[in-house]
Amino acid sequence: MASRSDAADQNFDYMFKLLIIGNSSVGKTSFLFRYADDSFSSAFVSTVGIDFKVKTVFRDDKRVKLQIWDTAGQERYRTITTAYYRGAMGFILMYDVTNEDSFNAVQDWCTQIKTYSWDNAQVVLVGNKCDLDEDRVVSLEFFETSAKDNLNVTDVFERLVDIICER
């Protein structure tokens, strides 16, 4: 998935391992594709296990290589995906604003982060699919995004990188 030149590029000041986690079908893969490739597909393809993309960004005159892992949300992959939490600098914990169960699961995902990652890992909570306002069932606002409309996708990654750099 990562382009060969970007993945092999060794010219960077920092490298951050980031994970996108949350229930199945909340839009984690679409979110990653929008950020890394500026693309969107409305066709649903469930992630099997884990996948990743690499993107290099500039923050505060520093070249930051992001290794962004897209995890499967289904319970049956949990033992595989939690193994990747180790060494992650940041997590994007995503729920779907049209799916209350995905929001209710946020606490369980936070518990997994505390159990399987290091103490200083940073977490950003993201309510995705805000373009489907007529179907909204979760009214709390944090970072709200739409991979489809490219709304606030870059802002989430930039904020997470900023939080990590501030530590």
Automatic annotation (TrEMBL):
Q: Which reaction is this enzyme known to catalyze?
A: GTP + H2O = GDP + phosphate + H(+)
Name under which the protein is recorded: small monomeric GTPase
What highest taxon heads this organism's lineage? Answer: Eukaryota
Family, per the entry?
A: Belongs to the small GTPase superfamily. Rab family.
Record's bilayer topology term? Lipid-anchor
- Supply the InterPro entries for this chain: P-loop_NTPase, Small_GTP-bd, Small_GTPase, Small_GTPase_Rab
Which Pfam families does the entry link to? Ras (PF00071)
Q: Which NCBIfam families match?
A: small_GTP
- Give, as one word, the top-level EC class: hydrolase
Which cofactors are required for activity? Mg(2+)
- Which locations, inside or outside the cell, does it occupy? Cell membrane
Could you list this entry's UniProt keywords, alphabetically sorted.
Answer: Acetylation, Cell membrane, Exocytosis, GTP-binding, Hydrolase, Lipoprotein, Magnesium, Membrane, Metal-binding, Methylation, Nucleotide-binding, Phosphoprotein, Prenylation, Protein transport, Transport
Q: What is its main location?
A: membrane
A cellular component term from Gene Ontology for this protein is: plasma membrane
Q: What is the lineage of its organism?
A: Eukaryota, Metazoa, Spiralia, Lophotrochozoa, Platyhelminthes
